[in-house]
Amino acid sequence: MHHFPAARGRRLSLLAATALAGALASPLLFAQQPAAATSAPMTPQARYQKDRANCEAGRTDEDRATCLKEAGAVLEERKRHQLDNNGSPVSNATQRCNALPDKDRAGCLARVVGPNAPNQRVTTSGSVAGGGILKETTTTTPGSVIVVVPDPAPSK
């Protein structure tokens, strides 16, 4: 199998888009409250106090300043009802795919919900413990057939 530079660049851009989507989704996944932890939803202010305490105690993967800034931003978004964790991860990922340009949307959706056409194949590698899961979509597209008809030999 030969890899052409244009195809390789396309594959790398799809991999980068997948990594970006995962990076954007990860803060939302970690911000969710476990269902059994609380019986009633926390108010935005109560959630902020809990997030701030986690920042102060160093129980996050961010430095203290970034953590406090993010906690404040989340509080403001919650107050405006712009931040919720309703909906499934697949629904959230599908919405992210729908925001992409047409040429990238089908590959993104295939990585999220599985191949949706017979010419698509999705491979997964890596692990959460190893630093991340990488999904790659390969879409096979038949090329055009070019028929070369030789010019007739000149008559003498």
Question: What's this entry about, in short?
Answer:
With 156 residues, this protein is mainly alpha-helical.
Q: Your description of this structure?
A:
The protein has helices at residues 5-31, 44-57, 64-79, 89-98, 102-113; strands spanning 120-127, 132-139. The protein is built from 5 helices and 2 strands. A two-stranded antiparallel ribbon has the order 1-2. By secondary structure, it is mainly α.
The major pleated sheet works out as: 2 strands, antiparallel
Strands, count: 2
Estimated helix fraction = 40-55%
- Give the averaged pLDDT, no decimals: 76
Indicate the proportion of strand residues: 5-15%
Key attributes of the depicted protein:
mainly alpha; 156 residues
